[in-house]
Amino acid sequence: MTKIIISGGGTGGHIYPAIAIANALRSIDPTVEILFVGANGKMEMEKVPKAGYQIVGLPIVGIRRELSLQNLAFPLKLVRSLLKARTIIKDFAPDVAVGVGGFASGPLLMVAGWLGVPTLIQEQNSHAGITNKFLAKRASKICVAYPNMERFFPKHKIIYTGNPVRSDIMDSNQKRASALEHFGLLAHKKTLLVIGGSLGAKSINESIDAGLKTLVKMGYQVLWQTGKPYAEKARKTVVALQSEQVKTQDFIYEMDLAYAVADVVVSRAGALSVSELCVVGKPAILVPFPFASEDHQTQNAMSLVNQDAALFVKDSAADQELVQTALHLLEDPEKQRQLGVNIKKLSQPHASRQIAEEVLKLVH
Q1: Residues 8 and 127 reside in one and the same domain
Q2: Whole domain around residue 199: which residue ranges?
Q3: pLDDT above 90 for 193
Q4: Pair 131, 258 in one domain
């Protein structure tokens, strides 16, 4: 029986691609045994079991860029994580170890390399993360989502696959009628979908909040994922507005249905969000998180903007520009069509299967 360990996490941008790879592995070989390894206390410890997979946690933590007591604990937690990773690999005896980025994948793939287990890493962003750059030296293969990644990795190891995305969004455009009913939206009105990552985005939320009355007055619907920290404030705004045209949720689990109702999308520019927008072919306004490591979200966004496949609003200018940019795009069907066509050209809908096939090649 083939055994695969998949390690990484910390954010949905790492977890959902990891689950997509696992699902693709099982579709190719239903007998494959898969074990996830994540970081204790992080969202993968909840999301992975919900997807039907076993997960083991390591005590690893990330290094904060600012001075922090957490950084003092890092060396001890790294050693403990390396020791636990060694025990996991010895007990599970994987044929291949897969890393999807995030600090959780570091100790597991380091130990796998030391013990002679073939490793594959998957880099989601256009600017490689610190963990993956470190792990690349021992990796057998490196699957990437953007061109020109030889800036960070040995060229002979790179395979251009795109990013794995959730399989349910592949046919999201066929679900519009049921999606409208699900969210309680009207078929004859255009819908702005606002997503700011799993925790929401402060600049996006505040900009939408301030411009909500104008959007409604212009006859548009808004489906707004606020994140938990902003959920109550958004709810009060909608109640005061007394409009059925705005629907808020702190987290949208049914992203296939959310994309199905969207005419225009406002989003951060995390790797998973960008890849999903490409697959569904939706006209998008990207507002990159400016404090992402190596400013990789801006680089992700510009890879689309430079090909006329998305619009860009700087985070610091969101309060002045975001709602107006959204209104202009909602009022311009031809620009919507053009952006939708161009972003769709950049999609890699079969990334999950291609990565799974590369993983299985390492077994043999």
Answers
A1: yes
A2: 168-344
A3: yes
A4: no
CATH number at residue 36: 3.40.50.2000
Map tokens 């291609």 to a residue.
354
DSSP 224-281: EE--HHHHHHHHHHHHHHT-TTEEEES--S-HHHHHHH-SEEEE---HHHHHHHHHHT
User: What would the pLDDT profile of 217-267 be if each residue is shown by its tens digit?
Assistant: 999 999 999 999 999 999 999 999 988 999 999 999 899 999 999 999 999
Tokens describing residue 145: 């989502």
Asked whether the predicted pLDDT for residue 296 surpasses 70, the reply is: yes
For residue 120, give Cα distances in angstroms to 25, 97, 142, 157.
Answer: 14, 6, 6, 10
8 A C-beta contact, residue 246 and residue 238: yes
Q: Round to whole Å and give the CA distance between 332 and 317.
A: 22
- In the chain, how many domains are there? 2
Shared domain for 296 and 356, answered yes or no, is: no
Decide if 53 contacts 36 (C-beta within 8 A). Answer: yes
Q: Are residues 216 and 310 in the same domain?
A: yes
As to burial, measured by CB atoms within 10 angstroms (0-12 exposed, 13-18 middle, 19+ buried), residue 151 is: exposed
Which run of H or E residues covers position 221? strand 221-225
Quote the percentage of the chain above a pLDDT of 90. 74
The residues, any chain, with a CB within 8 Å of residue 311's CB and separated by 6 or more, are: 283, 284, 285, 286, 305, 325, 329, 339
Distance between terminal CA atoms of the chain?
12
Considering the domain architecture, whether residues 325 and 357 belong to the same structural domain is answered as: no
Q: Taking all residues of the chain, what is their mean pLDDT, rounded to a whole number?
A: 92
**What's the CA gap between 7 and 101, in Å, rounded?**
8
Q: Which two tokens stand for residue 193?
A: 């979908």
Q: Quick one: 277 and 300 in the same domain?
A: yes
> What tens digit of pLDDT does each residue of 106-132 get?
999 999 999 999 999 999 888 888 889
Report whether 162 contacts 145 (CB < 8 A).
yes
Please tell me whether residues 157 and 250 are part of one structural domain.
no
Give the least confident one: 71-75, 293-297, 305-309, 353-357: 71-75
pLDDT at res. 25: 97
Residue 292: how many other CB atoms lie within 10 Å: 18
Pair (272, 307) in one structural domain? yes
